[in-house]
Amino acid sequence: MPVAGSSKVQILHMYKEFIRNSNKIQNYNFREYFLRRARESFRANKNVKSPEKISELISEAEKDLGVLKRQSVISNMYTFDKLVVEPLKKR
Amino acid sequence: MFRSVFRAAPALTRVSGMRSGFVKPTFSVASRFYASSTLSKDEITTRIADVIKSFDKTAAAASITGETQFSKDLGLDSLDTVELLVSIEEEFDIEFPDKVADELKSVGETVDYISNNPEAN
């Protein structure tokens, strides 16, 4: 594993926050966009080894997470019609 | 002046008597309200299996038992495992605390945690 112990756990927790907050977004297109972006960007950087780069990426992700949290809260203040591609009821 | 109070009193008891008579049958039928998970382990396992199957990365999701390990048997990396656990959380309407989630490595461990969690449904 390229990332050392504590920061690996920290990054995984951050990834979880990204997924959780993305799932809360009401609008299908934005929700899928944030999920896709979280998955892609975490995976794109999974082989980064230099500690400086890692801490730089972490602080960048923290900023993005702030944006995402704000947007997911805002999206819950409005109602969105479901798109035809969305299942009406989960399960 | 007092007479109106006396007159009101029997009427009141009558109403309350009627109400308790009305409530009684529902009270005896009412189920317990204290927390207790009603999910059986088999049910939890099937539902987790369904979540894993709908999680498109896992080709080897055909046979899922308690011993199935997320990383070894399902070929998930750490990011996938986190994502799968979030889907399982949503399925059961609970949130794994970070400490618990870090320790969950297999389907069996997850089933145990959910069956001991009274809020799961």
What does this structure look like?
The complex is a heterodimer of chains A (91) and B (121). Chain A has one domain. The model of chain A has no long low-confidence stretch (mean pLDDT 87). Chain A is elongated. With 91 residues, chain A is mainly alpha-helical. Chain A is built from 3 helices and no strands. Helices cover 68% and strands 0% of the residues of chain A. In chain A, helix 1 runs parallel beside helix 3. Chain B is an all-alpha fold. Chain B folds into 2 domains: 1-30; 41-115, Orthogonal Bundle (Non-ribosomal Peptide Synthetase Peptidyl Carrier Protein, Chain A), CATH 1.10.1200.10. Chain B is built from 5 helices and no strands. Chain B starts with a helix and ends in a 6-residue tail after the last helix.
Q: What coarse outline of chain A follows from CA principal-axis ratios? A: elongated
What name goes with the CATH superfamily of the largest domain in chain B? ACP-like
Task: Say how many strands of chain B there are.
Answer: 0
Supply Rg of chain B: 25 Å
Number of domains of chain A: 1
The number of distinct β-strands of chain A equals 0
How many individual domains of chain B?
Answer: 2
Largest sheet entry of chain A: none
Q: Please write the string of helix (H) and strand (E) elements of chain A.
A: HHH
**Structural class assignment of chain B:** mainly alpha
- Number of alpha- plus pi-helical segments of chain A: 3
| Series of H and E elements of chain B | HHHHH
Strand content of chain B: under 5%
Radius of gyration of chain A: 15 Å
Give the helix level of chain B as a range of percent: 55-70%
Estimate the helix proportion of chain A, in percent.
Answer: 55-70%
Oligomer: heterodimer
Q: Catalogue the unreliable spans of chain A.
A: none
Strand content of chain A: under 5%
Organism (chain A): Kluyveromyces dobzhanskii CBS 2104
Family (chain A): Belongs to the complex I LYR family.
GO cellular component, one term (chain A): L-cysteine desulfurase complex
InterPro entries (chain A): Complex1_LYR_dom, Complex1_LYR_LYRM4, ISC_assembly_LYR
